[in-house]
Amino acid sequence: MSWTLTEDHLEDLARGAAVLGTGGGGDPYVGRLLVRQAIREHGPITILDPSEVGDHDLVVPTAQMGAPTVVHEKLPSGEEPVLALRTLEKHLGKRASATMPIECGGINSMIPLVVGARLGLPVVDADGMGRAFPELQMETFGVYGVPGSPMAIGGERGETTVIDTGSDNRRMEWLARGVTIRLGGVAHIAEYTMSGAEVKRTAVPRTLSLALTVGRTIREARENNLDPIAALSEALRETLYRNLRVLFRGKVSDVERRTEAGFARGRAQAVSFDGEHKLELLFQNENLLALVDGEVRCLVPDLICVLESESAEPITTETLRYGQRVVVIGISTPDLMRTPEALATFGPSAFGLSYGFTPVEELV
Amino acid sequence: MSWTLTEDHLEDLARGAAVLGTGGGGDPYVGRLLVRQAIREHGPITILDPSEVGDHDLVVPTAQMGAPTVVHEKLPSGEEPVLALRTLEKHLGKRASATMPIECGGINSMIPLVVGARLGLPVVDADGMGRAFPELQMETFGVYGVPGSPMAIGGERGETTVIDTGSDNRRMEWLARGVTIRLGGVAHIAEYTMSGAEVKRTAVPRTLSLALTVGRTIREARENNLDPIAALSEALRETLYRNLRVLFRGKVSDVERRTEAGFARGRAQAVSFDGEHKLELLFQNENLLALVDGEVRCLVPDLICVLESESAEPITTETLRYGQRVVVIGISTPDLMRTPEALATFGPSAFGLSYGFTPVEELV
User: Fold this and answer.
1) Phi, psi angles (nearest 5°) of residue B69
2) Residue A193 confidence (pLDDT)
3) What is the rounded average pLDDT of the residues A255-268?
4) DSSP readout, A265-321?
5) Of A190, B44, B130, B314, whose CB is crowded by the most CB atoms within 10 A?
6) What is this model's ipTM?
């Protein structure tokens, strides 16, 4: 069923998107302000269930790309993703009937909403990452045969770039990242144009709704003095993200972070409150690997989320800092994201990690 | 008058293009092989005098961009610039009636000939640099109001990129250089699409013919045991490049060269045969400045050409090395390239040099 997204949803949505961002995906706070402004100017947004998209409808996903460390400082006006979509439409000689997230974490849950509000386009409740990932080829769309090309990039000065690498989505990422770096580290894009039938076949469904559920559950637990982690675990049980596991509780003891080659890369450490155990986190924009006392507890593509220990407020990699009291949770990804072809594209080996993938529900 | 370019012209053309490349522009030897192959497969090429191009004809210039140090090692197949032209045509929804060089030095005298032969398109005898320059905004086309955008880039794996920065040609260069670096340091492009009327108004005319004249003059002087420099000086007197001055004769004593940010940058020194005088050359792909004993003798946009001292064979910056016996000449550029707006775009200050432009014929 389609539903209408209003300003009242945004706080919960942003919080949920930050959880699904697994530390990355860009700051949803900035995205939330952009959506709020767009809704105030253009009215609320129609969210389409993927089952409602016509098989022959043309869906053009929109997103932001760049290092979260840069996004944090270089705010978009909201016009850039519209420019990207319009540029791609012009290149294709076709008009979009809807837009969609390519990524359901962080700011990229929000960017398609900005586009939807500004252009009066519905937004499909689905995405291609089922979380946040750092690179453009890391999409269920591509895993199941939809090419990212042609893609369009819109810059803040009205510059446009259209890249076409055929079926090679990795090459598309490589060139688009080069342009993004030249644009100052952040850009807005339209890519993975597909039919409604392809949305149904390749997208992770209902992840905007999922983000809203996650954000709302945390808020309501707080309001009712309940344990937000327990509430979240309960709420997820009915979704495609069935399993939540607490990986660690403790205090951040070290963060090493650098912006290089267009990404925020680094590692973080935390020590348990009793001082007995140590957590190590590795990230490239998003958290990739959680080790406790040297043993793997959760690894990509399963979600590794760092939350503030009392409020369960998500903490992104670019705001992680010494002394924060945190609870680190692992959440299982949908089966669609754990097939051999999916793991080849965004599993541990795609990030150069030498660990084979094991589901978090088996590890913890 | 239009004329037909055949395989027999290529050796002279390549030599002349290397002289006009002023040390850069990419190795014309590689370009010569590509044109020879294209002529053998597709027949000779029609060269149009700019006066013969219809005012409403669509001219789409083609070129290679990249660091000459890379071009030297990473040979194109010849399909890449055709891909760039076809991509731009598709983007514009129009077909080119001719192609043209954007640069008359080095490999870029050759690339449009490859395109012309392969596609059966005439090539206009004109260009936008009147020599070689390292950056895409350094064009008389842009100086006199023709935008470089939209531009298309073709890669060796069939990747295409279309960049549109409106009237900001410097921004276009910045983004295109980013893509070129990601393509491995060399790319092929189509840009500065213009009408025949714009060719007549903004291009430096008859520079393919000029390259041929320069190359032929040097060869014939050698064959007749005449001084090639004197012969060249004589031949240029009747062209827009009226003045030739000998700046220095001596032996290369030092070369410092690095490939950075997509360019070959560096400096070279030479010592006169009597050991009394010292030449210093500064280059960014092309030679920019010649100092003799610390005094300016020639500076960009005037041509600074390093030739082998006996044969007058041109030496490009990437093949310059210790011990070479050289004669360094300066050649005056056409008036079109010395206006205040032209000097603002490719004069000394555009390269961060603190010297004001003085014509070589006044300096020596």
Assistant:
1) -60, -30
2) 98
3) 84
4) EEEEEEEETTS--EEEEEEESEEEEEEETTEEEEETTSEEEEEETTT--B--TTT--
5) A190
6) 0.87
Name the minimum distance, in Å, from the CA of B168 to any CA of chain A.
9
Q: What is the band of A25 on the pLDDT scale with cuts at 50, 70, 90? A: confident
Residue B201 DSSP one-character state: H
Q: Is the pLDDT assigned to residue A28 strictly greater than 90?
A: no
Interface mutation vs chain A, best among B87, B163, B168, B180, most A CBs within 10 Å: B163
Q: Pairing mode, if any, of strands B151-154 and B45-48?
A: unpaired
> Scanning the structure block, which residue is given the tokens 């023709």?
B146
Q: Compute the mean pLDDT over every residue in chain A, rounded to the nearest whole number.
A: 95
Name, in order, each residue with C-beta under 8 angstroms of A214's C-beta and a sequence gap of 6 or more. A15, A16, A19, A20, A232, A235, A236
Q: Is B250 exposed, middle or buried (0-12, 13-18, 19+ CB in 10 A)?
A: buried
- DSSP assignment of A227-259, as one string? -HHHHHHHHHTTSS---EEEEEEEEEEEEEEEE
CA of B319 vs chain A CAs: smallest distance (Å):
29
Q: Which residue of B has its CA nearest to A170?
A: B159
pLDDT at B221 over 90: yes
| B148: its two tokens | 């470089």
A27 contact partners, CB below 8 Å, separation of at least 6: A18, A68, A71, A72, A106, A107, A316, A318, A319
Q: Using one digit for the tens of pLDDT, what is the confidence trace for B30-64? A: 889 999 999 999 999 999 999 999 999 999 999 99
Question: What would the mean pLDDT of A263-277 be, rounded to a whole number?
Answer: 93
SS3 content of chain A, % helix, strand, coil (to 5): 35, 25, 35
Task: List, for residues B140-181, the tens digit of each pLDDT value.
Answer: 999 999 999 999 999 999 999 999 999 999 999 999 999 999
The answer to whether B250 and B270 are in contact (CB under 8 A) is yes
**Are A254 and A280 a contacting pair, CB within 8 Å?**
no
| A181 interaction partners in chain B (CB closer than 8 Å) | 178
CA distance B98 to chain A (A): 24
Helix (H, G, I), strand (E, B) or coil at B331: strand
Side-chain half-sphere CA neighbours of A101 within 13 A: 34
Bridge partners of B286, per DSSP, are B284
Contacts of A240 (CB under 8 A, 6+ apart): A130, A204, A205, A206, A210, A334, A335, A336
Mutating which of A89, A175, A177 best tests the B interface, going by the most B Cβ atoms within 10 A? A175
Which domains are delineated in chain A? 3-205 (3.40.1610.10), 229-363 (2.40.390.10)
Q: Could you tell me if B126 and B142 are in contact, meaning their C-beta atoms sit under 8 angstroms apart?
A: no
Residues B101, B246, B203, CA angle at the centre, nearest 5°?
20
* Cβ pair B219, B226 in contact under 8 A: no
**Cβ contact A159–B157 (<8 Å):** no
- Residue A262 backbone class (left: φ over 0; alpha: ψ -120 to 50; beta: rest): left
- Within chain B, where are the H helices? 10-20, 28-42, 68-71, 79-92, 111-119, 140-143, 169-182, 196-202, 207-223, 228-236, 340-346, 360-363
SS3 A86: helix
pLDDT in tens, A216-236: 999 999 999 999 999 999 999
| Residue A225 burial (CB count, 10 A) | 6
| Lookup: tokens for A156 | 């803040």
Amino acid at site B67? A
Cα A317 from Cα B218, distance rounded (Å): 64
Contact between A309 and A228 (Cβ < 8 Å): no
